[in-house]
Amino acid sequence: METSEALKIIKALADGINPFTGEVIPDDSPYQNPQMVRALFKAVSALESREKSEQRRRYLPKNAGNPWYDEEESKLISEFDSGLSISDIAKKHKRTKGSIRSRLEKLGKIKPIERK
Question: How much is the pTM?
């Protein structure tokens, strides 16, 4: 089941609606218990966070978040030393520009950016 589908079902239950029929859930149903409703809204919040994370991940480059291996680091250093831009290196390695900068900092090739 996709997260978006689960979210739709849980939201309906939290709102007191049967997600399959669209009918209002009776007052004597366990789904109308205040503790249940709170739990369902907590589940909605968690699923919304997960959905945002999944959506963000879809737009990240293929290797974003993957570990770096020695061979890839060697290529990175070589490309940087030859004057290739960080943007071009990021595209070649299928990683974010921030990831390339971070790895170059770790390897001592560039100085860390001062952050306020």
Answer: 0.57
